[in-house]
Hints:
Shape: extended
Strand order of the largest sheet: 2-1-3
Number of helices: 15
Mean pLDDT: 83
Order of helices and strands: EEHEEHHHHEHHHHHHHHHH
Amino acid sequence: MIFKYRGIDAEGKKVRDKVEAASIEEAKSKLKSKKIIYQSIDEDSLAFYERFDFSRKYKIPAKELSSLSRELAMYIRSGISIVSALKIVQSHYENNKKMKLFLNTVSTYLDEGKDFYTALESQSIVILPEFFKQSIKVSESGGILDEVLLELSRFLKEQDKINKEIKAAFAYPSFMIVISLLMISFMLAFVVPQITGIFASMHQELPTPTKVVVALGDFFNHNFTTILALIFLFVAGFMFFMKKSYAFAYAVHKLILKLPLFGEIAQKSELARFSYIASLLTRSGVPFVQTIKLSANILNNLVLRELFSGAAKKVVEGKLLSNALHDSKTKIDYAFVQSVALGEETSQIQNVLTNISELYFEENRDKISMLLTLLEPALMLFVGGSIGFIVAAMLLPIFSMSVG
């Protein structure tokens, strides 16, 4: 629960803020420990727009979490305690109420004597990735918190960079596809029917291309709203089943992996993410079985997530990860399995996983670049060809009449 309060702090300044606590008594106790004399304290009520949000937890963007991790690492390396570091960082989030409340809550838990991991686990303000918390847990007990925070910062920044590159790369092709479909639909639904009346008065046999375009124009003209409604229902239904039906989402993800080129890009992207976070967790001292489970949880593809989760159970039984992956029904890039086997044989799994992630990230960049190089002229040809065909089909009867 979150409580809002007004009061006076130890320096005699008026304060107005929020505090997280299980009950109002605990909230009062926390304010007392901070030497704040409260004038009023009430449970925080939802704003109007928040009433439509089913989760009050704030999901920290990767870039923001990366920046926070880097700042904390720098302060800790400078000899500042984690408690003091958090209080300094709080001042950077004056305009972000959720982040400020999150940092304030974690600081309160630390003041109560809890360690950093427990404080992060206890708060209910934001959603943190499980691998992030587990890395903090192990590194804190090993005395390498600053090093791991820096590694986490690099990983999160790299992930954010890759996501932005992919979105930026596909922005133009997506725009072209939408515009071309809208233009073709508009011509078929509104322009073609206007010309059809001219052909009717000609009382002559129309060429086949013209018949096709006229038929499409009549269909779009009479069913335009129905088509839009069906598209909307299809998209809404697809998104609903992807979120609510595990079997449906699993089948879609399985289909994606089987697609030519796109399937290979998707698989290597997931394997790269798995390898990077697994190497990070291994370096942090997380047990290997737990590393596999946590790394599997960050994967978006359910087929690969299930593959690695199953492999983790086989490793518990005494199997090597490479053998578990090789014997699985779901087949992945053989080079990945071989590399893991080599790392297990030479006890250099951490370095091997780091190299795999770098290799796959680089391969995917090249493939996406090549795909976009081919896609842009193909889209231009599609748009030009489609509109050219419609225009030519409309002009053919007029030309034949002139020749006649």
